[in-house]
Design a protein that fits this description.
Helix content: 55-70%
Shape: elongated
Radius of gyration: 19 Å
Mean pLDDT: 96
Order of helices and strands: HHHHHHHHHHHH
Number of strands: 0
Distance between the termini: 30 Å
Number of helices: 12
Low-confidence stretches: none
Structural class: mainly alpha
Length: 219
């Protein structure tokens, strides 16, 4: 049986790529404004298919009205919808965050759980959201793979995978655990600021000597 050959950069090139990304995006970090794991998990849940900027504009009023899981669990959905109306899919998201808060109160004594299995049991919380909460809220080494991380990791050649889960596994395999959280932020910022989906700014990118996407485009 023929073994598939992965189209990836070397370990040495990977180390150099991370160093370059650090110089390009020293400010990389969690862009969602939050004060605790509760605000973080709500903000991440709201950020699906919309921008962090949009979420940050809506959450101050939301958290002022509902500062705890207990308060949000008792919220009227119409009121929550009005507070987050500027965010995409606000109807479904309002239902999800209320039910999420209810489960946090009922099953976890009003505290956001700090383990993966319990996090993904919450309404509206998938693998990516759980990984972000673990990394940012509790300092647990994880790599959350969103559309930016998936696109940039596979374009550069850090990974060569067809889906999000396989990309996450390969990133964790290739990177030291101490770099998981940091690399997540660097890849997101690079995707937002340079390596866009439709028109990557290859001429302005410091990774041109390493990036397989760029090398392939020059052939």
């Amino acid at each position: 049986m023929k073994t598939e050959t992965k189209h990836i950069i070397t370990d040495g090139e990977l180390e150099k790529a991370i160093e370059i990304l650090e110089t390009m995006h020293p400010e990389a970090g969690c862009a969602l404004v939050h004060r605790d794991p509760f605000e973080l998990i709500v903000a991440v849940a709201l950020s699906a298919q919309t921008t962090d900027v949009s979420v940050n504009k809506a959450t101050p009023a939301l958290f002022s009205r509902y500062p705890t899981p207990e308060a949000l669990a008792k919220a009227d959905q119409e009121d929550v919808m009005e507070l987050i109306r500027t965010i995409g899919l606000y109807r479904n998201k309002s239902s999800n965050i209320i039910r999420m808060a209810q489960k946090i109160v009922d099953d976890f004594d009003g505290k956001v759980p700090s383990d993966f299995e319990n996090l993904v049991s919450l309404p509206g919380v998938g693998r990516k959201t759980a990984n972000v909460v673990l990394a940012e809220g509790f300092g647990v080494p994880r790599i959350a793979v969103d559309t930016h991380v998936f696109r940039v990791a596979n374009r550069i050649g850090i990974t060569d995978e067809k889906n999000v889960d396989a990309t996450e596994d390969e990133l964790m395999r290739r990177l030291p655990e101490s770099l998981w959280i940091r690399t997540h932020h660097l890849l997101i910022f690079h995707g937002r600021k340079c390596c866009s989906a439709r028109k990557p700014s290859c001429s302005e990118c410091g990774l041109s000597d390493i990036c397989l996407y760029y090398k392939d485009s020059q052939r």
